Amino acid sequence: MPKVASLVWKNDHLELIDQTKLPLSFEVVQCTTYKEVADAIRTMKVRGAPAIGATAAFGVALGALELRAVPWAEFLSGMDKVFAELAATRPTAVNLFWALERMGKVVEDGKGIAPVNAVVDALVDEAELIAQEDIDTCHRIGEVGASVISSGAGVLTICNAGALATVDYGTALGVIRAAHSQGKDFHVYTPETRPFLQGSRLTAWELLEEGIPTTLITDSMAGCLMQAGKVQVVIVGADRIAANGDTANKIGTYAFSVLAKYHGIPFYVAAPLSTVDRGIASGRQIPIEERPAGEVTHICGHQIAPTGINVYNPAFDVTPAGLISGIITEAGMIVPPFGLHLEQAFASK
Ligand code: MRU
User: Fold this and answer.
1) Which residue has a Cα nearest atom 10 of ligand 1?
2) Is residue 280 domain-resident?
3) Residue 161 alpha carbon to ligand 1 centre in Å
4) Which residue among 194, 203, 284, 312 is the one 20 to 30 A from 318 at the CA level?
């Protein structure tokens, strides 16, 4: 079992590991209001698509608890503000909107039938359910995907798709954890993942905590490792998967998928079905978040570029479905053609 859980609900508040502080210090932040939750997502104290979704669900629960004692009309207008603020935090990870939709349905179902405080209780229950389902889903993804890692393999991942990026266990790192717990002997290459350094700060930390052998590299070293025959499989997470299988994930993922194709290395995406956005046909429709210039011009507060330089800082890129060997989900390994097989996976849910 991993030694970290990114978020824990404590009856009336949410505890989050402050991921901006890792690996130098392990700090837990307490969110007692939905505004604190929105701020934690916006500032990336909590990040990673499934973790953002579950956190937002608890944000809705906290917003509802703040409105527990008001009449229905006031509750509804107050909740509109809660949903709007949480929805505006980060645009790319669809799990955020998926979780808000689930929470919104609880409000809809109770409207005019149940007393406000019963709906508030139901919202807390739904958030807890979303969190528990995420843990179960990640374990299932691990079981489904472990076979893509053989003993002796070099495994390349990117960013952090681990326990920190989910409620627990992880997606890409869930697969790695499952293969490790099966006694397989393999090696993970962890790219630092500029500019926000989720690889060096979070994945390297998580794998060290778990005792899984890993080597930190800079992002630009992936190609030469593949050329040298040191990478047998690439496994990444996802922030949003379009209906045709095109996948948005951390910036740099696309480059790794092209490199993998050139070197004949299988490239897998590990993600829950809640990361699939069936409402969009292809990756061209995925909104890509652009983040502040300071993330590129500075490293840990230290300026590394001239003042006033133009900066482009997209947080994600899109890997076309044609470069993906398989999508590892809780419903099994989805193989091309992804459009058809993703629909079948939803139909059999
Ligand atoms: O900007 P981040 O750190 O939220 O981006 C996270 C990623 O890109 C992850 O790979 C993705 O969310 C999958 S997490 C299981």
Assistant:
1) 237
2) yes
3) 6
4) 203
